[in-house]
Write a structure and sequence with these properties.
Elements (H helix, E strand, L loop, with lengths): L5 H22 L5 H28 L10 H11 L5 H19 L7 H26 L2
Helix pairs in contact: 1-2, 1-5, 2-3, 2-4, 2-5, 3-4, 4-5
């Protein structure tokens, strides 16, 4: 495959914008429900970008996409089984998948600052590891 395809680079850029916005939102001292909703949105955007990149890499490897019923979880499992990401990284990403499900099916005022802080505190390291693993696979 060699170089990273432009679709993956575009997703990478979008995720990095969301990461920067998340960092700015987390720097605010007083967080109202509005700031918490923004933090939740940025975390959701970042995870969606990760899923989009995984889908692109699987397509590059001519791997059939998971079926609609539980495809978000299946996408992580398939990515591990095809050597796209490590099981350790998948386990870390699963926490964000769980948050994504909650975020989509709940209300912004239900977000808890403690949970958001934990997710936001880890996402930069997880993103760096994710891009490292993706880059290694795409370069093959």
């Amino acid at each position: 495959m060699g170089k990273i395809p432009k679709q993956i680079l575009a997703e990478k850029q979008n995720v990095e914008v969301a990461l920067d916005n998340l960092k700015r939102a987390m720097a605010r001292k007083n967080r109202s429900v509005i700031e918490l909703a923004a933090i939740g949105t940025f975390l959701h955007n970042i995870y969606n970008g990760i899923e989009n990149i995984l889908k692109q890499v699987l397509r590059l490897k001519n791997v059939e996409m998971p079926k609609p019923d539980s495809w978000h979880k299946d996408l992580l499992n398939l990515s591990v089984s095809k050597g796209i990401i490590s099981e350790t990284l998948s386990d870390q990403l699963y926490e964000y998948l769980t948050f994504r499900h909650f975020f989509i099916h709940s209300y912004g005022f239900m977000l808890e600052e403690k949970q958001l802080k934990g997710l936001a505190g880890n996402i930069h390291d997880i993103w760096a590891e994710f891009m490292s693993e993706i880059s290694a696979v795409v370069a093959q």
